[in-house]
Write a structure and sequence with these properties.
There is one protein chain. This protein is mainly α. The chain has eleven helices and no strands. The protein is about 70% helix and about 0% strand. The longest helix has about 55 residues, at about 175-225.
Length: about 350
Amino acid sequence: MKTPTFLPRLAAPNIRNSSFHAFCRMDVAFSGDTTHLSYWVNWEFLLCLLSVITSVITSSILIWRYEGSDNTERASSLYDGESWMPCLKGLSPFWLLAFRFIAFCLILAAFIADLATHGTNLFYYYTQWTLILTTIYFLFGSVLSACGCFRKDKMYNAHRKDIDTEQGIYMPLNHTRNDNAVNLKDECYFSQTAAIWGYIFQIVFQMTAGAVMLTDGVYWLVIFPFLNITDYEMSFLTVVVHSVNLVLLLGDTAMNSLRFPWFRISYFILFTSLYVIFEWIVHAIVATWWPYPFLDVSAPYAPMWYWIVAVLHVPCYAVFGVFVKTKYFILSKWFPDSYQCLR
């Protein structure tokens, strides 16, 4: 969802002067002195603030309602295998590990290249926040997959050891009992720890999915079709940062066993709200340009754009949820013996 507003060489586009075309213009969005109190004390900002507060309160209620300490849904979600086991029994967890590690390297390379090309101004953009979140997701997933594969290999070796013992290979009885007690204690601790990290990983997954859909969807369906800037070149890097994250995330989703409950849209909404608040704080301290014209609270119909973007979170999250549901439906029909839903 990044627009080239930080490029000083861009000439003003030749389009009609209307609020919608001002939004679509995506040129450098300079406004009045944002550090002055009069910029913020007006009814337009109050309506924009109301949209953010409403989103935060709604999200907090959903989290408290469905993931409170007394809710059984949270307890049932603590299944550590979901974070690293594929959705098909015939698919080795090592394939998912390899995919996540390669995806992490690709996303990190795109992030570094984009940062080296355009500088630190990129951190003003929601696109870069989403790219960082996607990088964290694949790094987190790679670590959990590696731990899961190590655990599976350890359990396999222990199982082979038990078989050898049953077949008559000599082993002292006391030594065997002590090893089994230690292994059982370690396995219990590992399962509890992995379950907690797996639960956090699920939240990161659902938050990343919504943010990626919003970023790429708004860019390709809203910004790009109406983009009309003189001297603006659609570079390969721009295409990459607005597409590769979604492609890789869909590939990971096609293989993983992570669920996609609707109420965790709340984390996605909180992520976007944090970004908006960050922009407000920056502009309250420093008089600088807005990365997106519709964030400028002094722009025409600014409250309307704030509410539209807030509502867009629902279809963005829902579209990805439909993909997950379709995946499970197809796999359960085509691979009934190999399909495993860990819910």
